[in-house]
Write a structure and sequence with these properties.
This protein has about 190 residues and is α/β, with parallel strands linked by helices. It is about 35% helix and about 20% strand. The chain has a single domain, classed as Rossmann fold (3-Layer(aba) Sandwich), CATH 3.40.50. Helix 1 crosses helix 7 and helix 2 packs parallel to helix 7.
């Protein structure tokens, strides 16, 4: 069921796919690890390719600040991509992401490695993806999120569909929901 609500945490309209806001806030408060797909979530799904094979991607600064804020709140952030990319490696290094997987094959393998590393259950993880390769993780995660451009058959697996598009602050939107559900003020986490 698709429901648009004004999120008290963000003061913005968000799309809830399952349950109500009180249930969602409870689930968000349990999150101890954030995992993001890269292409189509942290980027707008565009890859610029030069004649020499050089690859460029556009990442959003607000999403990077979200990673920083999550780290300050003690919530690690991981990236799982099914597409190897030098541009993604550069972004991972810039953000200081410790848990990064970019390999072809099922994303469930790195997901399970992360659960083991942090001694967590699936319900303690929030995952954001946008395509068919992400659905298994959306089913395993306590909170599943996607972006507005994701096909309807993907959105049906999401607890949250962000208002921000991929590569335009969608990841930050999820971070802010988790942080605020846990009782943190993002401003305090940034400046104290």
């Amino acid at each position: 069921m698709k429901v648009m609500v004004v999120c008290p945490l963000l003061g913005e309209r968000i799309e809830l796919r399952k349950g109500n806001f009180k249930q969602l806030k409870n689930k968000l408060g349990k999150i101890k690890l954030l995992i993001f797909d890269v292409d189509g979530v942290l980027t707008d799904n565009t890859v610029w390719m030069g004649a020499d094979g050089a690859e460029l991607k556009r990442f959003n600064v607000a999403d990077g600040m979200g990673v920083y804020i999550a780290r300050r709140a003690g919530i690690p952030t991981a990236f799982i991509s099914g597409r190897p990319s030098v541009a993604t490696i550069a972004r991972v290094n810039e953000l200081g992401i410790e848990d990064f997987f970019q390999e072809r094959g099922p994303k469930r393998v790195p997901f399970e490695k992360l659960l083991g590393k942090y001694k967590l259950t699936g319900e303690q993880v929030a995952f954001m993806g946008d395509d068919v390769i992400d659905v298994p993780l959306m089913k395993l995660a306590g909170i599943s999120a996607t972006v507005p451009h994701a096909p309807a058959y993907i959105r049906k697996y999401a607890d949250i569909v962000t208002t921000h598009e991929a590569g335009m602050g969608a990841a930050r939107e999820l971070v802010d929901l988790v942080i605020q559900a846990k009782g943190f003020d993002p401003v305090d986490l940034t400046y104290k």
